[in-house]
Amino acid sequence: MDKISIGLLGLGTVGGGVYQLLQRDNEAINRRLGAELVVEKILVSDLKKARNHEIDKSLLTADPKDVIDNEEIDIVVELIGGTKVAKELVEAALKKGKSVVTANKELIANHGSEIFDLAESAGVEIDFEASVAGGIPIIGPLKDSLVGNKIVKIMGIVNGTTNYILSKMSEGDEYDHVLAEAQELGYAERDPSADVSGDDAGAKIAILSSIAFNSRVTPKEVYTEGITSVSLNDIMYAYELGYAIKLVALAKKRGDELDVRVHPTMISLDHPLAKVDDVYNAIFVVGDAVGELMFFGKGAGDMPTASAVVGDIFKVAGNLKKEKKCYSTCTCFNSFNVKPIDEVESNFYILMEVLDRPGVLAKIAKILGEEGVSLGSVIQKQSSGNLAELVFMTHLVREGNLRSALSKVSDLEDVDRVCNVIRVETGEDG
Ligand SMILES: NC(=O)c1ccc[n+]([C@@H]2O[C@H](COP(=O)([O-])OP(=O)(O)OC[C@H]3O[C@@H](n4cnc5c(N)ncnc54)[C@H](OP(=O)(O)O)[C@@H]3O)[C@@H](O)[C@H]2O)c1
After folding, report:
1. Which of 34, 162, 229, 256 meets the CB 3.0–4.6 Å disulfide criterion with 247?
2. Based on the structure, what is the number of domains in the chain?
């Protein structure tokens, strides 16, 4: 049987999972592959660190050269994370003619273009299924299985931490309490800012939209809004109106432009994404030929993520075995602009606190109307003291118009504050 050797960079959460899966199912994987997969070396930063799983210590090294310059190694699997050491080592491995598998969303989202060019000129493959939504196969399906489709829309819940927080808040728990609980359970980092700000989801939708629309989208082009402004009040009103609030990473093609953004979104309770709770991830894809699809599963964790990494290793090893020259050709052959957020049209939910006296609603409606904001419905409820809460649901409106209208509304002395504005996904815009 041919032998295909693997060098792991990193033996942390995901690296440990990959090592275990490769050991556990080695015989079955080898038989399906028709070749013997062997872990040759594993790079770690601390050789003395206690490991959670049984490991042949002779495989460990703290010297990157033992992997990168190792002639035996065919596939380098990068599971270090970040864009410094990981980028240097991935580039070095590609230059040495080794195929690469990575789970690193930051690396692919921010430096995908350079890395693909490098892989192409070296005539090797790079795969990164685990970089978006952990264990859920989505990159492979978008690249291969759905190639006969024009992708119309992608809507993803791709960050487990924020989905857990919003799910628990929908049961009545306050944000701060749920975040602390999520940290205790290991669902949220000690520093949760990349998750709650929407940046993590932004990097993931940059990758998915680049693949879906064959046009490079980088994280800095993605409009991103996190979940910290979502209140229990918003969640309660959303439910009353028939919606759940989720942090949605969204990508659509509009003519020759892309609409790519991450923000809290009100989704109809009938929509399959509204039922995705806790740390689960899901990606809803609409293709013009296939129609609606939903990919659901665990978006993080050692074994789910390792499952995706091992799938990529199997794919790369299969190509090596067939001695197929696999060029990781960059599929971004289009160059569409990403629409500025002010030009994007959405339906909106607006919650404001106003003085509870006659004529206020009429004044606000007049300003909204003058700025082209058409209202679908209004709810008025007594708040505290002499204040009332007003909830507006708009029809489709250009975001720039809404912002300008709300700035004028906020200046009214009858308006105490605009508490929150949340985009509503009604499907009205296709
Ligand atoms: N965790 C998840 O659920 C998840 C899900 C999807 C994608 N990912 C991605 O998978 C990648 C790995 O994440 P992880 O959670 O497994 O990270 P992790 O637990 O922090 O593990 C990182 C590993 O890299 C090693 N390492 C760090 N810096 C190094 C250096 N300078 N030189 C050599 N080795 C170094 C560490 O060595 P020591 O063991 O000696 O400290 C450790 O084994 C990241 O790109 C992450 O975004 C993770």
Report:
1. 162
2. 3
Helix (H, G, I), strand (E, B) or coil at 263: strand
Which residue out of 204, 252, 315, 339 is catalytically annotated? 204
User: What number is the average pLDDT over the span 167-191?
Assistant: 94
Give the pLDDT score at 1.
65
**Ligand 1 pocket residue status of 80, Cβ below 6 Å:** yes
**Ligand 1 within 6 A of CB of 189:** no
Residue 110 sits in the same domain as residue 158: no
Instruction: Judge contact between 238 and 245, C-beta under 8 A.
Output: yes
DSSP per residue over 20-39, as a string?
A: HHHHHTHHHHHHHHTEEEEE
Q: 233, 265, 298 — which closes off a domain?
A: 298
**C-alpha 5 – ligand 1 centre gap (Å):** 21
Question: Is 310 strand, coil or helix?
Answer: helix
- Please check whether residues 233 and 365 belong to one and the same domain: no
Question: Percentage of the chain surpassing pLDDT 90?
Answer: 92
User: What is the model's pTM?
Assistant: 0.96
Domain assignment of residue 57, given as a range: 2-135+302-321
**What is the mean predicted confidence (pLDDT) over 390-402?**
97
